[in-house]
Design brief:
single chain; alpha/beta; 2 domains; four-stranded parallel β-sheet; 52% helix
Length: 305
């Protein structure tokens, strides 16, 4: 048999094994919920493209709901679980109404959505280190090469590209009473103000007993700082489903800095992202690098004058 024929046979066998494995997991109740999660009418989904602040938002929301029993990486999956790590039959038994984490592009059956968006240039930097942590790329992998692949959605491609994901939700749900858009950058600037918006949204959507006094908001923000989350990660990362099999020498919770792309990305990488997604970047109020450079040049000229 030729090498090509052997590869074809191996591919067919691998596909058959995957199908059999999936069927076995479904029949035994071990299939992860994921995109096929059972959705109830009172569900609320915290949704975003990966590395856009979803876990931080879960901490903020969880700590607002449970101020006397703070969220940790040990209990987050029982409070606001990610749909990819639990069998559907387990998810169906959770107390309702449920708040669930998702990274899916537009899903018409999601009744209510809190959608988090982040500057894609910062997302690319965070996603680079995320893929290092997961051992998907070697330590010396060039950032420019990564960014080109990032734009083509070659990592976690089930969620589409950043623009596919963001654009699908904004195109289909923006302006709906059952859709709340949060910008990561606004959360960083004033987390209490943005969390108050989330509390008002939750209150309208079956969580009518949620308390959002200034003290409660401040308490939730304090319990959800990057510093506290990094400390918790150090203690609990070996047990948390999202980090237990990843590199321990690289953190999941990183610097949480806005605008890191300006020093982390080359002009070429910035140009690739902006060239691919300029309309969405501008629509969301993020400045283009060329516009910033022009403004700085104009300011410098004014000062010189």
């Amino acid at each position: 048999m030729s090498l090509r024929g052997t590869r074809t046979t191996d591919s067919l066998l691998n596909r058959a094994f995957r199908v059999i494995g999936t069927a076995a997991r479904v029949l035994t109740g071990k299939q992860m919920a994921g995109r096929n999660v059972t959705v109830f009418d009172d569900d609320i989904f915290i949704t975003s493209y990966p590395r856009s602040g979803n876990t931080w938002t879960r901490f903020l929301v969880g700590n607002l709901m449970y101020p006397d029993d703070p969220v940790t990486f040990s209990n987050i999956e029982s409070r606001i679980p990610e749909i990819y790590f639990n069998p559907d039959h387990v998810m169906r038994r959770l107390p309702r109404p449920r708040v669930l984490k998702s990274h899916e592009s537009f899903q018409p059956n999601y009744p209510r959505v809190i959608y988090i968006v982040r500057d894609p240039r910062d997302v690319s930097v965070s996603f680079y280190y995320h893929n290092l942590k997961w051992r998907n790329i070697p330590d010396n992998y060039p950032m420019d090469a990564f960014v080109a692949r990032f734009v083509r959605a070659e990592f976690d491609n089930g969620f589409g590209s950043w623009a596919d994901n963001v654009g699908s939700w904004l195109s289909m749900r923006e302006g709906s009473a059952n859709f709340l858009l949060l910008r990561y950058e606004d959360l960083k600037l004033d987390p209490a103000r943005e969390l108050e918006k989330v509390a008002a949204f939750l209150s309208r959507c079956f969580f009518r007993d949620i308390k959002s006094s200034p003290d409660r908001l401040a308490r939730a923000v304090e319990l959800s700082t990057p510093e506290r989350m990094r400390s918790l990660e150090t203690q609990e990362s070996r047990n948390w489903v999202l980090t237990k099999y990843t590199r321990a020498d690289l953190p999941f919770v990183r610097t949480a800095v806005v605008g890191k792309w300006r020093s982390a990305l080359s002009e070429q990488a910035i140009s690739v992202i902006e060239g691919a997604w300029k309309p969405w970047i501008q629509r969301l109020g993020y400045p283009m690098a060329c516009e910033e450079a022009g403004q700085q040049s104009a300011a410098s000229g004014t000062e010189d004058a």
